[in-house]
Amino acid sequence: MPSDKVRASHILIKHQGSRRKASWKDPEGRIITATTREAAVSQIKGLRDDIVSGDAKFEDVAARHSDCSSAKRGGDLGSFGKGQMQKPFEEATYALKVGEISDIVDTDSGVHIIMRTG
Known about the structure:
Elements: E1 6-13, H1 30-34, H2 37-52, H3 58-65, E2 76-80, H4 87-95, E3 105-107, E4 110-116
């Protein structure tokens, strides 16, 4: 039976416009509050380039740099269906083929790159 669920990992960089300005690596939110969206985008672009060029593994980059608690699992969010994630995140994930990495995706949480894993 085909499932309409997908599985994905992501890397999140939060910034001033993020809904929650704190994360596991910045509990006080000092860095996040001082980070512009442009700075977050340029940081995540650099991380994406390292992954795509093969210089770094997605899971390792997520574990080190992601502002999401999923960093502890190498960015793995597990499986989810439609309506469970913010719309731009969901649409980007469903548009990817397994193994593909998205361009930058903006949500209320911050800027992401997403790798579809299932």
